[in-house]
Write a structure and sequence with these properties.
With 279 residues, the protein is mainly beta. It has one domain: Methylamine Dehydrogenase, Chain H (7 Propeller). 0% of the residues lie in helices and 41% in strands. The strands form six sheets. Strands 2, 20, 21 and 22 form a four-stranded antiparallel beta sheet that branches. Strand 8 and strand 9 form a beta hairpin. The chain is globular, with a radius of gyration of 21 Å.
């Protein structure tokens, strides 16, 4: 039986391999405003397939090529410019041709990386809903080449590349217990094609074959559940995860809380667990 491992953690994740005794020193360089580095609030950072760094800020999109910074902003008289300046999410496609940019009010921008031309796609208004379409917080390319789109209030969408249409996933229509996926802040597709959705209301799993959602709620007794930050990681292929030591903490308003593991593994005195088959 092939073992799979999907580690779903809260903030301040630290993984240490008990077989590895060496430590690595990390050096930080500071970019000043004289170097034209972005000085406004940075919402998202991405490195594309060619090595360029992209920064989504509150005042526009910034590209860094290891030598200098290039700025892209909204130009009212240029329809091929950025639609608006407050960048919420970024995704570079696997073909190294396009950068996808999530904006406010359901606007998805597409940047042609060769021609440096922007085009816009608008999530349509939800029928019979007075509320406007919400912000695009997460973008992910699926294995079929389309884009998963996560929003903060109107749920999950798939943007179909061929016809440039948005398909909304009604969360509760294919499950026994109605589920409403809102407050999406992260998306991850595992090796089986399962979509994992992290949101302010909990963790969700979408199975395309069953066309169904499964829900993993945050323990209501946990401190300030709407303030929980979630992350999902998968260890690189070929990494022997057996024996890895796993420890996590959650910080709320300056106070640290231990993460309560739900597993059969014995919890060590320091709150960590050792990964092994069956955990």
């Amino acid at each position: 039986m092939r073992l799979k491992l999907l580690i779903i953690l809260f903030c301040f994740l630290s993984i240490s391999n008990k077989l590895q005794g060496q430590t690595e020193t990390i050096k930080f360089d500071h970019f000043s405003d004289q170097e034209r580095a972005p000085q406004s609030y940075i919402n998202v950072i991405l490195q594309d397939q060619t090595g360029f760094m992209w920064f989504g800020t509150a005042t526009g999109l910034v590209r860094y090529n290891a030598y200098d910074f290039t700025y892209f902003t909204h130009e009212p008289d240029n329809m091929n410019s950025l639609h608006s300046n407050n960048i919420l999410s970024l995704y570079a496609d696997k073909n190294k041709k396009k950068l996808w940019i999530g904006l406010q009010n359901g606007v998805l921008n597409q940047l042609d990386l060769h021609q440096e031309i922007f085009s816009s796609h608008q999530i349509p208004q939800i029928e019979d809903s007075p509320a406007s379409v919400s912000n695009i917080n997460a973008i992910l390319e699926s294995r079929n080449g389309n884009l998963w789109i996560g929003t903060d209030e109107s749920g999950l969408y798939q943007f179909q590349i061929d016809n440039k249409q948005f398909m909304r996933y009604e969360s509760g229509t294919t499950t026994i217990i109605p589920i409403q996926v809102t407050g999406i802040n992260s998306l991850f597709e595992d090796s089986e094609g399962i979509l994992w959705i992290a949101s302010f209301t909990g963790l969700y799993r979408y199975d395309p074959e069953r066309e169904a959602f499964d829900q993993y709620l945050i323990d209501p007794g946990y401190p300030l559940p709407r303030g929980v930050c979630q992350a999902m990681i998968m260890l690189p292929k070929g990494v022997d995860w057996k024996g890895l030591r796993l420890k996590a903490e959650l910080e709320v308003k300056g106070k640290t809380y231990p993460v309560q593991w739900s597993c059969d593994e014995k919890i060590q005195a320091d709150g960590s667990i050792t990964l092994q088959p069956g955990v």
